[in-house]
Automatic annotation (TrEMBL):
GO terms for biological process: L-arginine catabolic process; response to cold; spermidine biosynthetic process. It comes from Artemisia annua (Sweet wormwood). It holds the Pfam family Orn_Arg_deC_N. Pathway: Amine and polyamine biosynthesis; agmatine biosynthesis; agmatine from L-arginine: step 1/1. This is Arginine decarboxylase.
Amino acid sequence: MPSLANFSETMTILPDDVANNTNNVVNWTPSHSSTLYKVDGWGAPYFAVNDNGNVTVKPHGDRTMVHQDIDLLKVVKKASDSKADGGLGLGFPIIVRFPDVLKDRLECLQTAFNYAVKSNGFNSHYQGVYPVKCNQDRFVVEDVVKFGSGFRFGLEAGSKPELLLAMSSLCKGSSESLLICNGFKDSEYISLALIARKLKLNTVIVLEQEEELDLVIDMSVKLGVRPVVGVRAKLRTKHSGHFGSTSGEKGKFGLTTTQIIRVVKKLDQCGMLDCFQLLHFHIGSQIPTTGLLADGVREASQIYCELVRLGADMKVIDIGGGLGIDYDGSKSSNGDVSVEYGLEEYAMAVVQAVKFVCDRNNVKHPVICSESGRAIVSHHSVLIFEAVSSSKYTVPAMSAFDVQHFVERLPEDAHSDYANLSQSAVKGDYEGCLLYAEQLKERCVGMFKDGSLDIEQLASVDGLCDLVAKAIGVANPVSTYHVNLSVFTSVPDFWGIQQVFPILPIHRLDECPAKRGILSDLTCDSDGKIDKFIGGESSLPLHELEGANGMKYYLGMFLGGAYEEALGGVHNLFGGPSVVRVSQSDGPFGFAVTRAVPGPSCSDVLRVMQHEPEIMFETLKHRIEEYVHDEGNIGGAMIAGGIAQSFHNMPYLTVGSSCGLTAAIGNNNGSCGMTAVNGNNGYYYCSSDEDFVAGADAVCEDEPWSYVCA
Ligand SMILES: *Cc1c(COP(=O)(O)O)cnc(C)c1O
């Protein structure tokens, strides 16, 4: 009987195009990785791969000088190393924010519009607002206001808490910056917006529903504030992508033309038509082409001109969001992961469309406002997480001898299946091989259920089928990498709308990735995995986990600075990541960590679901008193200390370090309770570690956290 044992076991790991260009994996270089992961496509000008094989951040984009590159691995080590080792002791996952990148994005957007305004002879200017819903993080919003105040950049709010934060943030902004109030409004929302005007913030109430107008008129009389009003128009132009479902005549938001006319009439009757100054529309995020964009802008500009004709004191056209991001680097308009234009083309299309329509109507050029969120904040933050293990091949590898042994012990009934399989193999009939292998397996499973096949034989059948599949080249060589992350918390758009983000290892890029994997998260949920990647791939090229020196394997998810943080939940009670802010720093330092905040602890996430960690701990302490008598080497106080420490720690895995309980046993003086857990992680129930906060504040001036690049 011919043997199957010498089937080739070669597997195809790399996509063909890369494999062809890199026949010799021995000569793998960082630039091969850059091509493989398409870093130049989605990452330029902020991300690249350096000669050491690490991802490097260019904090000032195109204007970054060579010595200003920041090695992401060094940042991650600084953030995650224990305090004893000179690090900040933060747990994974970690978000690294780069305010310099945020600044550059803002300036590039402004520059693109300035250029379009100038080159088209447009007689007004661009003045954008940042929609805070894209990332309401205090420091992100404060940075936008600070970096944008020189060119009157403002904020957009869509709810009462967002309005409150926009109001307080803009107190530090330019007095001309717009504060755009969108979203559904009640009288409280409207009175807040009117008060903002009283406080000399340049506030515009954008009517999202017709009924809001009565409230605005009422409240403005009551509060004695002259409002500035805009309307959100429902355009006929429709964006057909995923994010466009709010556009078109049947969209969720905005006023129809009939309603807009009624608004004009009513304001006129109240002697308030001069208050009507802004026209807004939003046809959805990720507008795929400038053609569609220009179409929408032209329609809105025509409405704008009509409003001028009807006597409104129009000043601003607000084109909403929709400025897209190229997540896969393909610069194409099919699907929601890419757009075919850049900032310059976007600005040009908008300015030309507005100018064309206004000139045709002899209307003075308006201020152009956009509410670009995704485009401003996506690049500035990177999510770093570890791969902690990968699924090992679980079927036994079969040698010629094993196959022989297996066949000899095979019950009579199954011999014919094996004979058919062997004959097909000899003939090179691959389909036949697969068919007979499957038949053999089915028969063996049946015999196992009947009790006539033992469990070792059953395992061998899997090994044999695997051998056949590999030899024919249809084996699925994709491994599962377990990552210290919750998809539901940190990549909710992948779970919710299958949005893909660029993901790659942030180091070892000078080595050829020998495997392919999907990423499986910590939650006990089958949806908690990432199995779609940019470029339409269903797996990601990855390295063997056991790297040199047992180094951990860090992956980065890029371009996730917009939406992901606020949308995420606490599935399985995994909370948010730790966050560090990192600025480029000249002089002896490569970069400075200007802020470091550990992610929510187990207590924090328990509280979200109304649990009371203090009471829980008391309950457990009573239980300890009842059941633990200090006869062994683990006393009650130590156990209590360990439990307290666990409440204090983040819910994620702490790879390679001891758990709360064993740490407490190692460190504790035994008298700990809720407030006296020793160790590196600070004290339970301190809302913050005083020393650390003081240090972090000082950072801005003295850069004590600066990391000296070797
Ligand atoms: C979400 C939203 C934005 C932001 O859109 P991006 O595409 O992220 O720039 C702007 N305006 C409104 C009204 C929105 O709802």
